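User: quick one - fold this with magnesium ion bound?
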Amino acid sequence: MPVVEANEAAIDEAAAALQAGKLVAFPTETVYGLGADATNGRAVAEIFAAKGRPQFNPLIVHVPDLAAAKQIAIFPSKARRLAELLWPGPLTLVLKLRAEAGISDLVTAGLDTVAVRAPSHPIAQALLRACGLPLAGPSANRSGHISTTTAAHVAADLDDKPALILDGGPTVHGLESTIVDATGDRIVLLRPGATTREALEQALGEPVASPGSSGAQSNDVNPSSPGQLTSHYAPRARVRLNATELRPGEALLAFGTPLSGAGSRMVNLSSNGDLIEAASNLFSALRQLDAMGADTIAVMPVPQTGLGEAINDRLNRAAAGR
Ligand code: TXA
Ligand code: MG
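Assistant: Sure. Structure tokens for the protein plus magnesium ion:
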């Protein structure tokens, strides 16, 4: 079991592991997080593989402070106010992504928004500063299990999936961060959590909206299922699954050896059939094919094993709904 007491040497080792694209579990003031370099698509894909998540929902990006967050996202005045008054702490802001920040689009599920938070836990702070990377980090538990609040729980749940589990003792809140949509002039509460509505309203000097209420700008949020807030990038083109031949005019989303007849309008998820690589390329591939202007994207079969389940979940949704 890769559990180590989070002293200075262990934090340096963890920072080096993160820089090398590995996973590190670390304490925050809410729950333990499973961290990876948010700019490294392969590393982010490993998070989903480790959690056994059958779906790609977007992940929170952890940063040390507001200055680091501004490199990644655009802060309207109310978002800045919340960050200035309540960071570091258990508050996550959904904001417009800066494309040039190089955040993997597996982190954002291809959306043009990103969830960022500056945790207050001293070990999380030390790790973020030591590695110098924005860290994608969902709660460090297997999919469908509850969030973990001790290093022993992380080890029991994720075993040796993280290269290292930094033990910082039990977390303080034991409840995830509060998530708000802060893209607009009206702050919308997306997921209740360790920062109370009252604290938000006091910081803002005005009421906070709930999803679906007038003034709430997110229309892709299902208020009945907090924590499952997500939508994904939806391609404009029609999507045809399990293609075994290419029809005239179609663009191709390949996996492995491309179908014969594929021309320049082709993106390969992984030419050697590597599901981790395929996951890390999925959202950018759909965007690229859309940008090529095809009416229909033919998608080669992807095996339903490992990360294939999450890839196929996403492709099925892309095929079902526009
Ligand atoms: O306290 C926490 O927030 C913990 C610690 C580790 O920081 N993290 C956490 O992450 O709870 P996770 O992955 O279990 O939950 C992240 C939530 C998901 O419900 C996801 O839908 C939402 O954040 N989310 C992420 N990006 C989003 C976006 N661009 N728009 C809307 N929701 C987003
Ligand atoms: Mg979670």
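One thing worth noting: Residues 109 and 303 are 20 Å apart (CA to CA).
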